[in-house]
Amino acid sequence: MLLSLDSGIGALSQLQDSLNNTANNIANVQTTGYKSSSVTFADTFSQTIGLGGAAGPMQIGTGVGTASIRNDWRMGAVSSTGNSNDMAINSPNGFFLVKDPTTGNTFATRDGSFLNVGGFLTTSSGMRVQGYSDTALATMGDIKIDNTGATMKDPTTGATVPDTAAVKSYSFSDDGTLKVTLADDVSFTRGQILLQNFTSPQQLQKVGSNLYSGLSNAGPLTVPVPPGTNGMGKIVTGALEMSNVDLAKELTTLITTQRAYEANSKAITTSDEILNTLVNLKR
Fold first, then answer.
1. What is the pLDDT of residues 90-127, one digit of tens each?
2. Inter-helix orientation angle 2-27/247-279, to 10°
3. Spacing of C-alpha 80 from chain mean position
4. Is 47 helix (H, G, I), strand (E, B) or coil?
5. What is the DSSP letter of 63?
6. d(CA 224, CA 214)
7. pLDDT tens digits, 151-189
8. What are the residue boundaries of the structural domains of the chain, listed by start?
9. Are 138 and 170 in contact (CB under 8 A)?
10. Average of per-residue pLDDT across 261-277
11. Most buried by CB count within 10 Å: which residue of 126, 171, 206, 257?
């Protein structure tokens, strides 16, 4: 009889995990680049109460446990924002890389809502977007929007000299290339955003602010690559990837979880009533 109590109580705990996960998905239905997750269950140890002969062993299960919580890596819808700093990857393949300037730790993200802060392309939390940081597109580092690497002809000597004019405008192409135009109308390629991808993205760990850590455990590419190469998606500027949460599915899961919770609660109360009957057999 105690097994039924244990099974019921254990099920309530696991169903609470499912409920918490569903509530989190619903809460993030408008979160940029958010990937929904789902809980799967597995039965726990079964107690053998007899050999059962030709019919096989007679076993009674002892409840349920959480087998996994898996992310859904399908791509969310791409929504236009009109902001030139906003970027979306038009394929499920590819992650932006961003680095914490304080700790030097690198994270992956699908959230392309970037800002120009002090000439650096950053996330809203201050992480700096990574890619080729030089005009030769050869050195990995922070993507910076400035006049570094621009040249001009000296009007007096005709020699090639650094162009120190201020930045007038800039734009990103679908392959991540950053083109900067200076106040004297000189345009040049300043750098290029690169993307990373993973063979086992389920190994990535959510750390908040739409960031993922644990990159080395997820099977990353040897080196990040330009968008549109090596199976990566291209960059859509002036747009963001929305959450891939299916609200109808989450609400359905919410209902079924509630019913399962009620059913297991009933198993507990029934077990309690039978135990109470046994206790009161002798008066």
1. 999 999 999 999 999 999 999 999 999 999 999 999 99
2. 160
3. 20
4. strand
5. -
6. 16
7. 998 888 889 999 999 999 999 999 999 999 999 999 999
8. 2-72+246-279, 78-241
9. no
10. 87
11. 257
| Sign of the CA dihedral running 90, 173, 149, 117 | negative
Q: Look up residue 122 and give its two tokens.
A: 């950053």
pLDDT at 1 (0 to 100): 55
For residue 167, CA distances in Å to 31, 83, 155, 185, 238 come to: 32, 18, 20, 9, 20
Beta bridge partners, 181, equal: 169, 187
CA 203 – CA 216 distance, rounded (Å) = 9
CA trace torsion 194, 87, 187, 164 (10° rounding): -80
Q: What is the mean pLDDT of residues 192-218?
A: 96
In this predicted structure, the answer to whether residue 46 has a pLDDT above a threshold of 80 is no
Count Cα neighbours of 60 within 13 Å in the Cβ-side half-sphere. Answer: 8
Contact yes or no for 197/231 (Cβ under 8 A): yes
For 93, phi then psi, to 5°, come to: -90, 115
Instruction: Report the DSSP beta bridge partners of residue 52.
Output: none
The C-alpha atoms of residue 224 and residue 232 are separated, in whole angstroms, by 10
* CB under 8 A, 24+ apart: contacts of 132-135: 132/191, 132/192, 132/194, 133/191, 134/191, 135/188, 135/189, 135/190, 135/191
**Contact call for residues 268 and 276 (beta carbons, < 8 A):** no
Distance from C-alpha of 163 to C-alpha of 146, rounded to nearest angstrom? 11
